[in-house]
Specification:
The protein is rod-shaped, with a radius of gyration of 18 Å. By secondary structure, the protein is mainly alpha-helical. About 95% of the residues lie in helices and about 0% in strands.
């Protein structure tokens, strides 16, 4: 029973971590694009 409860808690944390990772990757890509634009200009 205890393992089921801990797994049920771990899954949402895992999903949230994936979403945060995607958000962070998008922010990094945006900032790299902005930096590249400044370097060109």
């Amino acid at each position: 029973m205890e393992t089921l409860a801990s797994e049920a808690r771990a899954v949402p944390a895992f999903v949230m971590g994936q979403q945060l990772g995607q958000q962070r990757a998008r922010v990094i890509a945006d900032s790299e694009r902005i930096i590249a634009r400044h370097d060109r200009g």
